[in-house]
Amino acid sequence: MKNKWLRLMALTMSAVMAFSVAGCGDKAASDTTASKDDSAAVKAEADGAEVAEDEVVTLKMFIRNSSKYTGLQEDPVAKYIEEKLGIRIELTVDSSLGSTTAQASTFDELLATKLATNDMDDIMDFGSTSGNPECVTNLQNAAEAGMIMPLDDLVAEYTTNLSSDPRLTVRNDYRRENMYSDGKFYSVGGWGGMGLDQLPGAAVWIRWDAYKEMGYPEIKSDDQLLEVLAQMQEKYPETPAGDKIYAVGGGFADAQGMGDGFLNRDYPLTKGYESLEGNYAVYFNHATREVENLLSDADSVFWNGVEFYFKANQMGLLDPGAMTMSSSEYSEKVNKGQYLAGYNGWTFMGKEAVLEGLGMADSGYMPLDPFDDVESMALYWESVLGGNEFAISSTCEHPDKAIQFLDWCMSEEGSRMITQGAEGLAYTVDENGTPSLTEQFKTDNAEGVVDMAEAYGKWKYAGINAFQHIDTDANGNYIQPEQTPDVENYSAVKKDALANYYKADSFTEHFTTLKTADGEDLPTILWGSYAAAIGTKPDDIKQKYGQINDFMYKQIFKMVYAADEAEYETLKAEAIEEVNNLGIDDVFNWYDTRMKEIRGNLDALIDEAVKAY
Amino acid sequence: MKQARVKENKFRNAKAAEKRKLFLISIPFLIFITAFSYVPLLGWVISFFIYYPGIPFSKMEFVGLKNFEAFFYNKKQVITVVRNTFVLSGLIILTLPLPAIFAILLNEIRNLKFKKLVQTFSTIPYFISYVLLYLAFTTILSPSDGMLNTLLVDNLGILDKPLNVLTNEKIAWTVQTATYLFKNLGYNAILYLSAIASIDTQLYEAAEVDGAGRFDKIWHITVPGLLPTFVVLLVLQIGSVLSGAGFEQYYVFGNGMIMDKLEVIDTYTYKMGIVQGNYSFGTAMSMMKSVLSVGLMLIANTLVKKIRGSSIF
Fold first, then answer.
1. How many CB atoms lie within 10 A of CB A153?
2. Sign of the alpha-carbon dihedral angle for A562, A565, A567, A571
3. Helix (H) or strand (E) run with residue A343 in it
4. A100 with A81: CB under 8 angstroms?
5. Does residue A566 contact residue B96 with C-beta atoms inside 8 Å?
6. CB B86, CB B70: distance < 8 Å
7. Which of residues 22-61 of A touch B (CB under 8 A)?
8. Chain B residues touching A144 at Cβ < 8 A
9. Are B143 and A146 a contacting pair at CB < 8 A?
C-alpha cells in the first residue's frame, strides 16, 4: 500500500514537471499558429465572410497608468472606449509602474525585459524619449526586428485625427523622416503640444502663509533663501499634529536617476538648465537651446545646487532623514506640511485643502519670483513632436482596432477625457464647445477621498493622449478643464500672492512678463523636442556617462553631508578631477555635435510646428 | 541448478525493471533541469556580440571579448566593486558558525514552548522580503523620526544628534552583515537542528554514563556531528562568494552615502547592464561570475577533501 502511494506520488510529480516544461514551450510557435488563424480570419473577411462590426475586442496594453489593478479596466473612460470603439482595455501593468520618476524608471526596466524576451502586448508604450535615453534605440531595433508594425497604411485607412490634424501629421512626418530608416513610421507621439503652466513648477516653492507673515522679504539668491528658511523653521518647529518641520527635504534613498534628481534635475531646472537624458555630463540651456558642461565649471549652477543642500544641512535645515527616504516618503511628508520649501513645485502645488485638513487653515505653497541667477523659466512646455512613444506590436490580432484606439487618444476629446475623466461625469460641454467641471467632480476632487482615477477615469491613462493637459483645444479651452483659472475660488494663499506679491491680474500675466537680472525678457519655453531627438549613442559614450553618473550619484551626497566647508571643497575638487578622468569632455563633445545636427534639422520644423498651437 | 538460474534471472529482470522505472521517473526532472538550467546558458553567446532585443542573431555584430574588457574600463571602480564583494562575502563566511552555535543553544533549551517560540521568531525574518525589511529598519532607525532616535534624542536626551545607522559609510559592512544574520540566522539554524536530530542518541547516553557534562557532550558529540553539514554549507558559500548576501539586500539597502561600500558585482552589473540596456555587457559579467564561482567552489571542495577526506563531489 505504501509503495503504491509512493509510486502515485512519483508519477504525479513527474507529470507536473512534464507539464511545467511543456508549458514553457516556444511561445513563438503558438503565436505563429494564432497568426495563421488570424490570417485566415482576415482573408475570410476579405472574401465577404460575416464578421460582426460591433464585436468588442480586447487589447492588451503595456502602458503607464494610474490603475490599482491589472487586467480588464472598468472605469468610466474605459467603458466609454468600449462603447464607442468596441475596445476593452486590458492592462498588463498597474500603477506601481505609473508616471512618477521612480515608477518610470521601473517601467523602463520592465520594458527592456519585455523587449529582450519578445513579450509584446498589443499596444506598447516605449516611454518618453526625453526620460528614457534608450527609447529611440529600442524603437528602431524593435522596428528592424519586426516586433512592431509600420503604421503608415493603418493610419491612412483607419484614422481621422492621426491622418489629418496638422499637429499630429507633423509628428508622424518627423518620425518617418528622422527616427526610422526605411521611410515608414512605427510609433505615434503622445503627450505633445505647447502647453502653458499658469504657475511655474520649476521654481522655489515656499510655505506662503509663513512667508507672508514675515512680510515677503526679498529673496534673490540661495543664501537669502536659506536665511529666510532658517527664521521660518525656528518659528514653525512642528505641525499641529506634532511632526517636526524642516526647511527642505529630499528622497535621496532612491536609486541613481531618482534619488539624486533633487540635485541634478530639480535645482538646475529652476535656473533654466536641464540634465540631458538624466546625465550629469551635459545640460541643456533652455534660454540658448545649447548644451553646456556644468560639471567642469566650478561656479556653475550645478555646483550651486549641491552647495545649497550642503549649507542647508550645515544649518540644520535639511531633514536628517532625507538620505534614508524615498521620493514617495518625501511626498508624504510634504502632504503633512513638514517642509517649508522645495525646488520641485509639482510636489508642493495645490496642497491648501490637505493642509487645512491637518489644522493648517489658509496655508499652502506658492512659487517665489526667479532669483538673479535664473536664465529661463519653464512656463511653456514645448513638445510639438510628441514626447511619449506608442507602437502596435506585430503580434497584435486587431491592428485596425489598435490604431483606432490610438487615434481616439490623439483627438482633443480623447486627450480631454484621459486627463480629466469621462464626459458627462467629470465635465460637461455646452453648445459653444466650452467644457466645465461638474459639481460632483469638484466636490470629490476637493475632498480627496474618492479615487478619481477609478470613479471618473481622471488621469488614469495620462501620457497616451496627444495633447498635454495644459494645452488648449481649437476653441481656446484647456484640454483639461480643471486648468481653467477659477479666480473667484482661488485659495487664500493664491489670492494673497497674486494681490500682494506678484501684484498682477493673473499668474500668466505676471510670469510671462518677467525680466532677467540684466533687464532682458526672461525666456519661458522649456524645449522638449531637442532632447527627444538625440537617439542612439555610441557604446563608449554610454559607458563613459554611465560611469560618470554612477560616480556623481555617490559623490554629491558625500558633499551634501560633508562635515565642514574644507571637506566639501576637497570633495568638490575630487569630483571635478574624477569626471574629467572618466571622459566628461568626450561625452559633452558628442552631445554638443549631436545637438548642433539636431538643431540644423529641426529648428525650422519645430518653430513652424509651434505656430499650430 | 536450473531453478537457481531461473531465480537469478528473475531477480535480474526485476532489478532492471526497477531501474528502468526509476530512470523513466527521472526523465522529466532531467528535462526540467536541462530546460531551465542549461538551455538558458546558450544565451551566454550574446556576450560576444552587440545584442539588441529582437535583432536576429545573424545581424548582430561580433565583438569578441570587448564586453568582458568593458568591465575593467574604470579600474578604480572595479577595484572597489571587487573589494566590496569579497569583504561582504568574507564577513558572511566568518559568521557561518553562528547558525550552528544558535542551533546548539536552541537544542539545549529544555522548555519546549520557549524553544519553539525562539525558533519561530528567529525564522520569520527569512520570509520577509528585503523591501519590507528595509521599511521596518527605516521606521526604527530613521534619523528624523525613527523610533530609536526619537527615544534617544527627544525622549531620553541621551544623544545630541540622531544616529545615522543606514547612511554611515564607516559601519556599512557591519550593518549589512548584521542585517544578513538577522534575516538568515534562524532559517540556516534549521539545517543544523536537523543534523543534531540525526545524531545517534546512544552516543549521548554513553557519554552520560562516562560522566560527560552538558558542555562535554556538545563539544565531543554535537559539534563533530555538525561538521559535515558545516562543511557542505562552507563549500556552497565559497561557491557564491561573488554574490555575497545576494543582489536584493545591497540594492534595497544601498543609497548614495554608502554605495561605495555596498556596490558589489551583482549591483554593478545590473546598473551597467540592465539599466543602461547593455545586455551583452550584463551577460558577459554574469558569465564571468558564474565561471569564477564554479571554479572557487571546486577549489574549496578539493581543499576540504584533502583536509577532511570527504566532500560534496
1. 12
2. positive
3. strand A341-344
4. no
5. no
6. no
7. 24
8. 54-55, 59
9. no
Collapsed DSSP state (helix, strand, coil) of residue A97 = helix
Decide if B199 contacts B191 (C-beta within 8 A): no
B101 phi, psi to nearest 5 deg: -65, -45
Residues in chain A within 8 Å Cβ distance of B144: 244, 246, 319-322
- Answer whether A39's CB lies under 8 Å from A69's CB: no
Q: Which three-class secondary structure state does DSSP give residue A543?
A: helix
Q: Which of A266, A252, A263 is nearest to A325 (CA)?
A: A252
Residue pair A363/A337 in contact by the 8 Å Cβ criterion? yes
Which whole number is the average pLDDT over A235-259?
93
In terms of Cβ atoms closer than 10 Å to its own Cβ (0-12, 13-18, 19+), residue A489 is: exposed
Query: Which grid coordinates are listed for A334?
Result: 510634504
End-to-end CA distance of chain B: 43
Average pLDDT over residues B29-53: 90
Query: What are the grid coordinates assigned to A3, written together?
Result: 509503495
Q: Hey, is A315 helix, strand or coil?
A: coil
SS3 state of residue A128: strand
Domains with residue ranges and CATH for chain B: 1-64 (no CATH), 75-308 (1.10.3720.10)
Q: Which residues are bridge partners to A467 per DSSP?
A: A192
Instruction: Give me the phi and psi of A72, to 5 degrees please.
Output: -65, 135
Average pLDDT of chain A is 90
- A188 sits in which H/E element: strand A188-190
For residue B276, list chain A residues with Cβ-Cβ distance below 8 A: 134, 542, 546
Q: Chain B residue with minimal CA distance to A330?
A: B144
Q: Which domains, from first to last, does chain A contain?
A: 53-190+387-455 (3.40.190.10), 202-376+489-610 (3.40.190.10)
- Nearest CB neighbour to A14, from listed B25, B56, B143: B25
Which residue on chain A is closest to B136 by alpha carbon?
A: A324
What pLDDT does A313 receive?
97
- Three-state SS sequence of chain B: CHHHHHHHHHHHHHHHHHHHHHHHHHHHHHHHHHHHHHHHHHHHHHHHEECCCCCCHHHCEECCCHHHHHHHCCHHHHHHHHHHHHHHHHHHHHCCHHHHHHHHHHHHCCCHHHHHHHHHHHHHHHHCCHHHHHHHHHHHHCCCCCHHHHHHHHHCCCCCCCCCCCCCHHHHHHHHHHHHHHHHHHHHHHHHHHHHHCCCHHHHHHHHHCCCCHHHHHHHHHHHHHHHHHHHHHHHHHHCCCCCCCHHHHHHHCCCCCHHHHCCHHHHHHHHHHHCCCHHHHHHHHHHHHHHHHHHHHHHHHHHHHHHCCCCC
Do residues B106 and B123 touch, judged by C-beta distance below 8 A? no
- Of A173, A172, A176, which Cα lies nearest the Cα of A189? A172
B38 — contact with chain A (CB < 8 Å)? Answer: no
Confidence of residue A104 (pLDDT cuts 50, 70, 90): low
Does an H or E element contain A85, and which? Answer: helix A76-85
Reading the block at residue B3, the C-alpha cell is 531453478
- The DSSP output letter for A265 is I
Determine whether the interchain pair A145/B167 forms a contact, defined as Cβ–Cβ distance below 8 Å.
no
Could you report the per-residue pLDDT of A490-511, keeping only the tens digit for each?
999 999 999 999 999 999 999 9
* CA-based R_g, chain A, Å: 26
Is the CB of A134 less than 8 angstroms away from the CB of B276? Answer: yes
Residue type, B152: L
Residue-wise pLDDT tens digits, A60-80: 999 999 999 999 999 999 999
**pLDDT for the residue numbered A5:** 64
